[in-house]
């Protein structure tokens, strides 16, 4: 009989011959494989290699590296196959040379700075406005009836349709850009909050009521923490919307000097410079991924607190 | 503490239900959970509620706590502060154990060090010293129930409603908490409405034990418990009266089962 | 047309000066006079210290018109179409064309193997935008050649309005068979995608001239600050002069400004080819505007619009006269 | 002493003078007012007027009517104030006349049909693809590490940047439009599902495990229903993204026949016809709102089932 | 059924724990919940587990059910099908009461009419006939627990793990369910591991009663219960042995409390 660790039952599995046994198969699983089992991993995650930082980093890195390697390989093979002329589908090396050239100019980083400043300002504004609207709409039934659906309606509007209004209200200022960004992102934030609030378990609401929570305290201590998961996913969507709106909105006002990412992207397209287009796709992807990593960190911290993830 | 002293305050009706009824749902789906319940609880009284599963005990507490609206009759608690310990622990997963206990204190605006001191006291009372920094999901069922008790006590309410608060505890831990609860009730002159399935527990703790009939819930019996405190749950008096009440309860459930 | 009311209303005006002039233009080679004027500071010099120049750039005509109408800019370089649309929408109250800027530089480029209009049957041809000059030119030309094309992309020839970037790529990949586009894409299709010129639009117009870009201002600004408008025109003319006299330097200046605005200059061969195909002139070639509008009406892309009074060439002609150059006319052909 | 219904305690409230009383205030509230109290209404909703359909419809309609009336009024007042010339900010009557003219042409409805067909096809495709990707990513840890963040990254890409790739892969066909739509919407759907799965309470997962759920059965009977709220909100966001991508994507290919809504919007802008622009904004808003109403119906049915809403 | 007959099957060890330990968390936060637990349950045996709140009873069940991994020792259930009734009812809110009970049957591929019949039978057994179309949130705490019991029974497992299944029930309903559970156990030759805080219940039902020590959980006593079945919970034999076990338990909790 095996003496150590959970392999004992697995050993017996063949003997029992009961293939419907839901348990035996589960226990025999080794920790690394359990990791792979995804959801089950939430429960079965091995605790032992905590602190072995190197291993942990490696484990979250190799799939990324592999994925990138595969993409590059497929790309290069497509290029070699000469399926399309090289000026339509440039090779990875061309693109990365271009990318290298682009990101080594200070001008590019100025553009990144301009764009990120706008993105963060706009997003923060959208979060504030979206949160307030979401809270109000979920709180007051008539308001919900009045503008609940309008929120999603606004969201489906292409940013470009807001340009005339943005120009009308804010002339050609930075505010016009922010306006477009906020209109793009705030509905997601509001919707995330509303849906989170709608799904706060009844029991918790009742507990809050018994504890005498009301008004701001209720939001601070009950509604917000309880709807945080949905709120965060609303923020994530809001970020995606705000970024997309920004890319369009930046074409509204072009400030000579530092060229924002949106303008550069458009320019690359206008020049039909496919290598440059791919460069900017990569730049935008990387920014998007970096931001997503931030959101995921917040999300994981939350899930750990809530006991949905083994720490 | 003499019986006379507790009697003193009993001339002051604090919770009054008159002919209260409660219907859930509507139309063909309607379910009459409580029907014509009349009940008066004096200030400082400890009243235990007994009844079959699903007879409307929790419903009654939620009506008194103002969580649900009554469908008929009159309910009056004179605007007192009510605290309710739910049947399920219902702790907030985003707060630590201490955070959960501190929450009512925060809402009362108690200062941070004061809060912390009080929460630790309460955790001591429910025998969970040292578990303050754990999260609710790291506790056993009985431990969670005790945290919920500590949270309810932290509320400093006039009326304490308790829904099977000791259902998930072993006999010994329960005995300890009976003593603690009795002490707090006496010291703070609380008014307690206590739901349980353990008849001996009811007799051990209550000034009165009220029996509810099965669906729809009605008050069918109101036993005053006059044994002198402190009582012991395994004392012959408690056992004796518990036996009597149990028989009555069995008869009621049997009647309903037919 | 009439050289009467428009010119008289402003030419007699005083020399009121605005505190600032907000001028719009596109980072596009057809806006070279603006690019060069800004790059070489011709506008600033002409406006003097009394009036501050603020420039705004746009990506497309509609946004420029929106900005003009909502008061975010006072004047802008712009193509004929948005100007006509703006004129029509504002019922002749929003803007005035005060000078020409660019002419020529557009045509139909097709792939190898298409040699005559008849070969276009069943083919897909891109234009920059439904109802714009090139689109109208293509449709009119097709009609003349006995081919029909409807607004929804059906008919003998499929006309597909598309933005320039898409059209270029689609042509390179064979998704379309040709495109009627302006510079610099006209040259790029030829140089980069090995396209073949089937029609050079120049050949379709009497003097080989047709308007591509001109300069407009809001009527309000024109009324209030005729002096400033005149100075703007002064700068514009200097820019045109510079192109005429120092063509190579002008190309460089235009490309430098382009690079500053868009991060990347045009390739030299495209730049040179574009400059060769374009004519930079203060003459707004009014006749081509009226004819084009007529064509648009004919193919149902424009509601009948009265363009009478869209030009106010008085200030320009005063300056031209002073410089001893021939005056221009806003008369229809 | 009042004899009927819940006003008794409210009557005593003044007497007790205990302003911190969390309960007394709550009970005294009358049903209509409780409705307004928003969240609390979830619990305190009056049951009596069930079936009084007219009243219910009226209650959900008047706020909308009021909201529309207010918007129209503000708009009309702005027009009257002559803040901007009439051709920049047309009056409501002009716009509604135009709108009337537009929607009475059969051509317009053909366009709506074309666009809605594309929207639904694209959205359905996005839902299928997003669901599969979301399920896989949440199931396999390495996959999550590899492409988890990429999903959000892709989402932040403006649709217009996909045009080159769309043409590359699909030439100028309907598929190119669908490609852009799917790329826009699928990430939201996937993210909604992933976040829903991540927040499935541990207890339910354990119940599922004990019941021997695995593979497809686990998804069918546990994961999907449990993550449905978040999934639906992901669908809602996905719809917004797909619609916006569609409005851009429709400019890619103009298929002979009817002019799609996206093309019409663009044309309205190109013509600088502000009245027509507002017409199409209204059309798109209305479509967006109608779809949102569908989503809300699904959401409410769900909340009712889950016991989060009194039926 | 004679005792001899039940003894018959006891030569077949079905659940075996040898020196099993379980640690939650790691580092300074680690908590040793179970330490060196050895326990063998024979096929067809009814084993009750008693212990103070938080001593690791639920942990033990979840290890046997394969929901958590053991941190040390050997655990072997021979690949049998296990069904676990959780301490909290944990019903699925998106299914009706009947849907919840039918779910295990669906997973087994039972046909729809068969499923429905079986679910109604089970709801009858737990005395919830007529509640099949309600949703979990429309039930009282005790009713939910009974639905969870019906769901666990529907699983048709060889080993039935029950975590305080009758904690929220009144005495009478509990008695009825004791009888039903005993009947099913006998008829289907189930192996049952039953956690409770009610010592008399343990003596009423169990072939053996196992006592766990407080944190960390260890087996400190293993009482065989030899009274002939059917037993009555208020019979003197049951009360007598329950008293004895209670004293031992109290001693253990008291020891730990120091
Ligand atoms: N939200 C609800 N909607 C519909 N019916 C409900 C609701 N809550 C309770 N009920 C019904 O009301 C009756 C009484 O429920 P209640 O929870 O008050 O019982 P209880 O006495 O607390 O029972 P237990 O001892 O099992 O907790 C039950 O029949 C239950 O089905
Ligand atoms: N997921 C977890 N993470 C960390 N600690 C846990 C976890 N689950 C249980 N524990 C700890 O393990 C110990 C045993 O818990 P368990 O739930 O097994 O107790 P129990 O015997 O079932 O108690 P009760 O009778 O109160 O239900 C407790 O101290 C608890 O705090
Ligand atoms: Mg209850
Ligand atoms: Mg437990």
From TrEMBL, chains A, D:
Q: What is its main location?
A: membrane
Q: Where in the cell is it found?
A: Cell membrane
Record key words, sorted: Cell membrane, Membrane, Transmembrane, Transmembrane helix, Transport
Q: Which SUPFAM superfamilies match?
A: MetI-like
Cite the residue spans of the region called Disordered.
Answer: 1-22
Q: Which InterPro entries does the UniProt record give?
A: MetI-like, MetI-like_sf
Q: Does the keyword Chaperone apply?
A: no
Q: How does it sit in the membrane?
A: Multi-pass membrane protein
Q: Where are the transmembrane segments?
A: 65-83, 119-138, 150-170, 176-200, 221-239, 245-263, 275-298
Ranges for domain ABC transmembrane type-1 come to 112-295
Highest taxon of the lineage: Bacteria
Spell out the family assignment given in the record's similarity comment. Belongs to the binding-protein-dependent transport system permease family.
- The protein in question is named ABC transporter permease
The species this protein belongs to is Paractinoplanes ovalisporus
What lineage is on file? Bacteria, Bacillati, Actinomycetota, Actinomycetes, Micromonosporales
UniProtKB/TrEMBL annotation, chains B, E:
Q: Which UniProt keywords apply?
A: ATP-binding, Nucleotide-binding, Transport
Gene3D superfamilies, sorted: P-loop containing nucleotide triphosphate hydrolases (3.40.50.300)
Q: Which domain of life is it from?
A: Bacteria
Question: What InterPro entries does the entry give?
Answer: AAA+_ATPase (IPR003593), ABC_transporter-like_ATP-bd (IPR003439), ABC_transporter-like_CS (IPR017871), ABC_transporter_ATP-bind (IPR050166), P-loop_NTPase (IPR027417)
SUPFAM superfamilies reported in the protein's UniProt record: P-loop containing nucleoside triphosphate hydrolases
Is Nucleotide-binding found in the keyword set? Answer: yes
In the record, what terms sit under GO molecular function? ATP binding
Domain named ABC transporter is located at: 15-239
Q: Output this protein's name.
A: ABC transporter ATP-binding protein
- What is the organism lineage in this UniProt record? Bacteria, Bacillati, Actinomycetota, Actinomycetes, Micromonosporales
